[in-house]
Amino acid sequence: MSPKVFIIILNWNNWPDLQECLESLKDNDYPNYQIVIVDNGSEQKPELPNLDIKIIYNKENLGFSGGNNIGIRYALEQKTDYVLLLNNDTIVSKDFLSKLIKAGEGNKEFGILGPKIYFYEDKNRIWSAGGKINWLYNKGTMRGHDQIDQGQYDSPVISAKISQRRPASGMGGPASGWQETEYMTGCCLLIKRQVIETIGLMPEEYFLYYEDTDWSLKAKQAGFKCIFVPGAKIWHKISRSALAESSSYIYYHIRNGLILAKKYAPWYIKPCVHLDAIWRIKKQIFKLIFLSQKRAWAKYILLGIKDFYFNKTGKYENWH
């Protein structure tokens, strides 16, 4: 029998996109899955297609990790073999889950797996082909981001050991293109039950952004690999031209990047992280004084740095 997969979809005030996501899941060819929607305190209740779906309603917004952890706990109680985290603003290909499971079953060390993700509005332009971490800039980046897909990420070039190892039961092989990557984005992330039981649930100190990177790094520390599966494909509804850039985006990226570096950066990088923070503080003070058009950004960058050093984690409660 095929391994059981629980698909956890976190929703917050975005039922129209969620409905399209669910419609695409109806056509997927994997035979053994259960959808769990975790509503993170939305104002409106859903109108869902006729699917066998479990819905869990949170009374408040628990953030990305907190909301997903509600669904993950439920999936573990139901004896799932895998958990798939999937953004509600995605559309999936018919065989995406089958290919992810095939890779997961192909090697015991493969703990976290993810697909090739494209922009929804530009169907052949890559949003993510695995993740890389730049400790000097204290952030994670998505490999291949904004590139037209010409097969440049389909060959197993990251980890030669993976491409040369013979998979179990004759699955996969060099032609599969499975590749080890530094982290997997939570937009679509498949994780084995064994990994969750070993490393625990998603870390909740971030509230939003970087919790998927933390989880991936923790899994790697425990001896598991993060694997990019280029044959599995989905599309993500995010505007490629959008300037990212709400106050919450700025605050959480600054603070959480520092939290991640404190936990996982190489020892020789950590002093540079603090020096960079000092430099950023000086730059933002200059902006506050002399550049009125950049004062809002400067304020939340400074706030993120301050809260990191005062050990303030989780949700920032004082948005206006």
List the helices and strands and how they pair.
Elements: E1 5-11, H1 15-26, E2 33-40, E3 53-58, H2 63-77, E4 82-87, E5 90-92, H3 96-105, E6 110-119, E7 122-128, E8 131-134, E9 139-142, H4 160-164, E10 179-180, E11 188-192, H5 193-199, H6 211-221, E12 225-236, H7 247-264, H8 270-290, H9 295-309
Task: Write up this protein.
With 320 residues, the chain is α/β, with parallel strands linked by helices. It has two domains: 232 residues, Alpha-Beta Complex (Spore Coat Polysaccharide Biosynthesis Protein SpsA, Chain A), CATH 3.90.550.60; 63 residues. It has nine helices and twelve strands. Strands 1, 2, 3, 4, 5, 6, 7, 10, 11 and 12 form a ten-stranded mixed sheet that branches. The longest helix is centred in the C-terminal third of the chain and has 21 residues. The N and C termini lie far apart (52 Å).
Give a summary of the structure in a few sentences.
The chain is of the alpha/beta class and 320 residues long. The protein has helices at 15-26, 63-77, 96-105, 160-164, 193-199, 211-221, 247-264, 270-290, 295-309; strands at 5-11, 33-40, 53-58, 82-87, 90-92, 110-119, 122-128, 131-134, 139-142, 179-180, 188-192, 225-236.
